[in-house]
Design a protein that fits this description.
This protein is of the alpha+beta class. Helices cover 49% and strands 19% of the residues.
């Protein structure tokens, strides 16, 4: 995992970047998806976009000494599956937009929709 530095507005911290080549079938599918969006009126893809479609890039703040590159990717997959579950639950429960002005309004909105 490559280490990169990031300087935010108030702090500096290190992030790691793991780059994985997709399987040939997945590369083709990703590139076809990009081409289809362009055919449907989207912007013409840059050559770099088509090249990057062949990879998965994961950034993390977890030190490289804690997890191997393969473990980082596995945790990313798990996290993504959790995100998809929440997306599905929001769709089923029609929780598309909750008030987010402050903690109290968010709690009231989430309790009212249950």
């Amino acid at each position: 995992m490559a280490g990169l530095g990031y300087r935010g507005t108030k702090s500096v911290f290190r992030v790691g970047c793991a780059l994985f080549a997709r399987a040939r079938r997945r590369r083709r599918r990703a590139r076809r998806r990009i081409a289809r969006k362009a055919q449907q009126g989207g912007p013409k893809p840059k050559p770099e976009t088509l090249q990057y479609a062949g990879y998965v890039m994961v950034f993390t703040t977890v030190p490289a000494s804690h997890f191997s590159t393969a473990e980082v990717l596995e945790w990313y997959r798990v996290r993504w599956q959790i995100e998809l579950v929440f997306k599905r639950l929001k769709t089923l429960a029609e929780l598309g937009s909750l008030p987010k002005h402050d903690d109290q309004s968010a709690r009231r909105g989430s309790m009212a929709s249950c």
